[in-house]
Amino acid sequence: MSAEPWLPPAPENAPPAFGDPYGTFGMRADATRIDWQGFYVGGQFSYSDGNADFSKSTQDPIAFSLRQTTLQATFAPSNWPVLGTANHSAAGFGGFVGYNTVYLAPTARIVFGVEANWDQASLSLYAPNSPLTRVTPDGSNTVSITGSGSVTNLDFGTLRARAGWAVGNFLPYAFAGFALGQANVNIAETTTVIQKSPAGTFVFPATAGKNNEWLYGFALGGGLDYALTHHIFVRGEYEYVQFQTVAGVDINVNTVRVGAGIKF
Predict the structure, then answer these.
(1) How far apart are alpha carbons 261 and 43 in whole angstroms?
(2) What's the pLDDT tens digit per position in 236-258?
(3) What is the C-alpha separation between 36 and 108, in angstroms, rounded?
């Protein structure tokens, strides 16, 4: 015999027991009575993989530093790629808060909601540097360009609308929304020109980006919530975030998460 006390089901029209509408005191979730409607809050652990393409990030700094030269107007060294693509993966943590609305009650099949989600990811991406030296086609100049690029301490959050289909204790869902991030974005380049006639060496440094740069973009993904009780659920999800180009750098982040929440 089980040592756990047996609780008989409440009569169909019985009043709620001490504020518990199902009379179970949160011990078990009855799959036929799961109600996903209402506010919820939770915490999560994440693993994010960030990607940053720096190949165009030196174009504006070089063009600015050479803006009054015949070299830029004729040969456009600003288009020469100096930096590459960087990746960085890191574990993180965060939280979420949201609200669900249920349709087709009492069967409660379709669930729509809105959710705010934040990740303390602290991603840092450093561009591989490929210094290059080229002689202009007319042979009048030798141009050498070096550079550096980084996106550090990248954290981000999303505000998204989601839609799901409740199947018993399971709630698979998809979402789309707005992404907001913050990071230190720093780009630097130095262009050195050795001129044949008249002979001379000229150095043109320039920078772009700043610390605490705000990043804006969009988020897409999907996941699965599973109700352990009428008020407690666990989840797993995947999210893709694409930020707008900032200082010539294209940034995207792929994230997987596991978490748990409480529904009120």
Answers:
(1) 6
(2) 999 999 999 999 999 999 999 99
(3) 8
